[in-house]
Amino acid sequence: xxxxxxxxxxxxxxxxxxxxxxxxxxxxxxxxxxxxxxxxxxxxxxxxxxxxxxxxxxxxxxxxxxxxxxxxxxxxxxxxxxxxxxxxxxxxxxxxxxxxxxxxxxxxxxxxxxxxxxxxxxxxxxxxxxxxxxxxxxxxxxxxxxxxxxxxxxxxxxxxxxxxxxxxxxxxxxxxxxxxxxxxxxxxxxxxxxxxxxxxxxxxxxxxxxxxxxxxxxxxxxxxxxxxxxxxxxxxxxxxxxxxxxxxxxxxxxxxx
Length: 257
Description:
By secondary structure, the chain is of the alpha/beta class. The protein is built from seven helices and nine strands, in the order H-E-E-E-E-H-H-E-H-E-E-H-E-H-E-H.
């Protein structure tokens, strides 16, 4: 996808859906990034859905209804945005997980915590201890404080050029570990953004993975069909491997295996 097209989608509060194969399964993570600021919320950036292919009973679909009066009249400070997000997923049986330290205490591969998925790495790489609280998680939601001031994904080159790149921010995430899959994630993302937060649906875009012939990966037509329940074809856009995979290494849960 050309850079101008990506920027347009992001500026219109884009939603991105990406699939990462891992050990023959699809792992899940969802995240929304917000600035740590007391100003009204101006932008919710990308929400990724990377989930394991074990589907729980289908959740009821959310109609494309009008935003609530409360959402339309509320000043969306960072505090209220965070609280609303965590409560939304707690109502859907997600365990609220506190933000971990911005300087990781037990991960020598990271100088700073740079994403909401960091504290769940032991689950993704199959190294979680059976006695760890992480081992019991099925659904989780968190608001993770992040620093991007060095390393591969540091955002420094984009700070000051737009309204949504920051070196210190919180990343809101909803997570399914072998429980629900794409349909629930898409439905809840739409409900959260358009009903709970009151964002105008006619300004939202979604992306789906367009496939990669070199990696032997087909287009994610399933995710595309799910987004078409809410959006016209012109606002459900294909995304390339480069755009849809958040690669921190050559292999692993953040990139192709």
